[in-house]
Design goal:
Layout: H1 9-32, H2 34-37, H3 42-46, H4 54-61, E1 69-85, E2 89-96, E3 99-106, H5 112-117, E4 126-135, E5 141-152
Parallel strand pairs: 3-5
Antiparallel strand pairs: 1-2, 1-4, 2-3, 4-5
């Protein structure tokens, strides 16, 4: 078993990164406030009882061509496993028990405060969102977000596992 050494630069970098991430998550929680960061239910947050499973979305809309909007609204919920910020567009991949689906937010179609809330969402958070079903220019099946609720913050105050030396 490796010896513990004080002053190990890898361990120090990992510890400082962990502290930085936890500090950012705590600040985000303070900005949001607990009531806004933790909704009680989909009914309370988005006016539905159950989200549409990803597999059902793919069965119903998987054959859509690229850059197509259906006009149909669905509500999805899941854990954020990927997040990309492209300026006026934000993409989040949500994972439920049946698969992944992309959530798209467009600054031009979502009110500014609601769009800014996406900056407070972290990987691992559980969110729900309602929006129009469609595909992106690259053909990715997506929900084009209109409303969002957040149900659980990931590790807002809990430590991450330590890196092995």
């Amino acid at each position: 078993m490796p010896e513990e050494r004080d002053g190990d630069p890898v361990r120090e970098r990992a510890g400082s990164r962990e502290e930085e991430v936890l500090r950012a998550r705590r600040e985000s929680l303070e900005r949001l406030g607990r009531d806004r960061a933790f909704a009680i239910s989909l009914r309370e947050a988005l006016d539905v009882d159950e989200p549409t499973p990803t597999a059902s979305l793919r069965d119903a809309f998987g054959s859509l061509g690229s850059d197509h909007r259906t006009g149909e609204r669905r509500t999805i919920a899941g854990r954020i496993v990927l997040k990309r910020d492209m300026g006026n567009l934000k993409f989040l991949t949500l994972r439920d028990g049946t698969g992944d689906v992309q959530l798209v937010a467009d600054r031009t179609t979502v009110e500014a405060e609601s769009f800014a809330l996406l900056d407070e969402v972290d990987l691992g958070d559980i969110v729900g969102a309602t929006g129009e079903v469609g595909t992106t220019r690259r053909g990715e099946l997506s929900i084009f977000r209109r409303r969002q609720g957040q149900f659980e913050r990931s590790s807002a105050t809990r430590s991450f596992p330590r890196l092995a030396s």
